Amino acid sequence: MARIFWVEDQSHWIDKFKQVLEESAFDGSANELSIFKFAEAAQQKIALTDECKRPDIALLDARINGRDEGGLSVFNALMRKWPDLPVLFLSEHSGTELEKVALEHHALDFISKHQRNVDEVLCWRIKAALRQRDVRQTASGAEKDRVLASGDLRIDIDNWEAYWKGRKLMNPANAKRPLAPTPRKILRCLVERSPRPVTTNQIAEHLGLDPDTYAHATYRQHVKTLRTAIDRADGGNGVFLQQCQNGFGIATCREDGAYCWKRCSYSESK
Amino acid sequence: MARIFWVEDQSHWIDKFKQVLEESAFDGSANELSIFKFAEAAQQKIALTDECKRPDIALLDARINGRDEGGLSVFNALMRKWPDLPVLFLSEHSGTELEKVALEHHALDFISKHQRNVDEVLCWRIKAALRQRDVRQTASGAEKDRVLASGDLRIDIDNWEAYWKGRKLMNPANAKRPLAPTPRKILRCLVERSPRPVTTNQIAEHLGLDPDTYAHATYRQHVKTLRTAIDRADGGNGVFLQQCQNGFGIATCREDGAYCWKRCSYSESK
DNA sequence: GCCGCTGTTCACAAGTTTTTCACGGCGCTT
DNA sequence: AAGCGCCGTGAAAAACTTGTGAACAGCGGC
Asked: What is the domain class of B147-262 according to CATH?
């Protein structure tokens, strides 16, 4: 369920979008809408909202109750409280100074109400914004404790399974078996420290082994396993391996023989 | 200067936007446009482009040469090579399936060509996209990452990467690879001691090497590497090298065989 | 004991990085 | 003007890293 914070002063627009916003499954279930028809009411709500009830996304009409600054004032209040909240403006006045100012103030998007197929466009953009947020913050609120996510990768801390684009990472040596424990631990360690590099010694420590005996060759071997496993889950066409060479994914740092998880977020076409 | 990678098959759109794209000061100076009228040409260029010439942003027509998948195929190629490159679609077909698919594939934006004031809107959105990239780069783990900055140079202490005007410093010997470790360490040392000169012995000490065996010739060689690396990131036109001769950047201290980082911010305001 | 699995080690080729060498140029001194 | 020392440079040698396949050891189940 996504919490949507929505400011819109004109009833007919509310009527037009309400249903589609409530029912679109942005993340699998119906959404919780908070609608405000006045900037002041919205401001007050922002001030009073607990962190645990924070919205996932905000939609603002740029012009509220006839005042151009209405949307911007709410926007600023939102930004002060939740600097990384994705905010989309929704306005009849695209292509004007209003849009320029909104974008300059780091609004995520500015959607024209007058366009073909607006309600669908709106949903697509909300979905994109939410996904971008997920990618940016490594973990999404609800699952925070049990899931570690970074781009297309998802590690379930409880049962120690890892997924790439929803596909479970398997053992390259035997596609029917899950990824072996040590590589999984290494992957977790890499993701947790990202974007910082992880040296052989740190891995040894993390695995509870003696850093003096834990050879770098072993680490390299596990990294190889991981890279191939992800590549297999990715389609097995070597795209991921190539990305590793370009410094994304499990990148080589050439510094103390360290590797580094660099999130690469994009989805392969279907 | 921003490097813009632009795919557009219709000349009249090129004519319409070319000037404004070239001249808008997204980051203080004129831009470098690479325009492609065919998907294939664009693909080829992507494959052949060195890391140091990587574009800052891409603009794609969604429908190229009559094929819906044209834009998307270029998009995928771009993403494979540079997963974090901001890509904006620019299309006559907003509100259609094309827009949906593009947004689902993590395109940053999808701009309708048919709207009031398109050229300005386009610029605003490009500016917003570039700023977002900068923010992401500087703020990825903002609190935790220690960053050393001096003028246009930024050294990320944690993951050991260095940027000049937002572009990553690459290895001059092989533009696809990052700057080698030793030059990076030397650069850091120079910047940290700036504006005091750093002698060969100090470098040897900093690198944990025996000052007696560490030859000055080696130091000179690394300095050369650094200067070329920065120059490449600067556009590769020798301007930075010139500045070094004039005593800015990595200056030579005639006195005692030392080099010295002299901050030079000749890039105008932002 | 035998089997299958995992984690570790070794050896080696390919590729990178660092160091060395040789030379031309510049400025200063003799 | 010749000599000297030092800087910048290109190329080549030397040293090191990384990725990889194959072999080996340990372990638990049967």
From this structure: mainly alpha
Per-residue pLDDT of chain B (270 residues; tens, 9 = 90+): 788 999 999 999 999 898 888 887 766 667 888 999 999 999 988 888 877 788 989 999 988 887 878 888 999 888 888 888 899 999 888 788 888 888 888 889 999 988 888 888 899 999 888 888 776 665 554 445 577 888 888 888 877 889 988 888 999 998 888 999 999 999 999 998 878 888 888 888 888 888 788 888 999 999 999 999 999 988 888 888 988 888 888 988 877 778 999 887 654 333
Answer whether A195 sits within 8 Å of B80, measured CB to CB. no
- The distance from CA B8 to its chain's CA centroid, rounded to whole angstroms, is 23
- B197 vs chain A: nearest CA distance in angstroms? 26
CATH code of the region A3-137 = 3.40.50.2300
Q: How far is B67 from chain A (nearest CA, A)?
A: 16
Strand B147-150 with B153-156, pairing: antiparallel
**Residues, CB < 7 Å to strand D:** A 216-217, 220-221, 223-224, 227, 241, 244, 252-255, 257; B 216-217, 220-221, 223-224, 227, 241, 244, 252, 254, 257
**CB distance A36 to A45 below 8 Å:** yes
Kindly report whether the peptide bond that precedes residue A86 is cis, defined as omega within 30 degrees of 0. no
Residue extents of the structural domains in chain A: 3-137, 144-262
Q: Which CATH architecture has domain B3-139?
A: 3-Layer(aba) Sandwich (3.40)
Q: Do domains A3-137 and A144-262 have the same CATH topology?
A: no
CB–CB contact B95 A117 (8 Å): yes
- A95 to B115: CB separation less than 8 angstroms, yes or no: yes
